[in-house]
Amino acid sequence: MPPASHVSHHAASGAIPADATFQQIHSEQGMADVMIEPGRVGTADVSIHLLNGDLATLAASELTLTLTAPTPGSNPTTRPAAPDADGVWHVDGVELSEPGNWTVLVDAVLASGGRLQLAAPIVVHRK
Q1: Distance between CA 103 and CA 121 in Å, rounded?
Q2: Domain around 93
Q3: Which of 24, 66, 85, 95 has an alpha carbon within 20 to 30 A of 39's alpha carbon?
Q4: Which helix (H) or strand (E) holds 8?
Q5: Number of domains the chain contains
Q6: Centroid of chain to Cα 21
Q7: What is the pLDDT along the chain (127 residues), one digit of tens a residue?
């Protein structure tokens, strides 16, 4: 599926809650669906689903998430993620200090021995 219809598929299936913010990040090595819930200033939980080109779960042995606030000079926050039984990675209790276009970086050590690093902006809304 092309990226737009893949995102539409998530939204149509109810997989993206109304109060969440979502970003799909692509590269030739794979992609990551990143969801922050709630997608607003305050404490939030992040889920990351790694996928290959066929939209199957991409196996990883380790994953870290780095979020950087939109204010110039902001210090990035890096946290390890934990996988669930379905292969979706989670980081709970992330503090989102301000609204705007944050930068999200996903850094995964793949089960194949390779590495997947993906970065993109993600919107955090006001309370």
Answers
A1: 4
A2: 23-124
A3: 85
A4: helix 3-12
A5: 1
A6: 9
A7: 344 434 433 433 347 889 999 999 999 999 999 999 999 999 999 999 999 988 899 999 999 999 999 999 999 999 999 999 999 999 999 999 999 999 999 999 999 999 999 999 999 999 8
Helix (H, G, I), strand (E, B) or coil at 13: coil
Contact predicate 27/118, CB 8 Å: yes
* Inside any domain, residue 10: no
Token pair listed for 45: 């939980």
Indicate which CATH number applies to the domain containing 81: 2.60.40.10
d(CA 36, CA 27): 21
**Identity (one letter) of the amino acid at 119?**
A
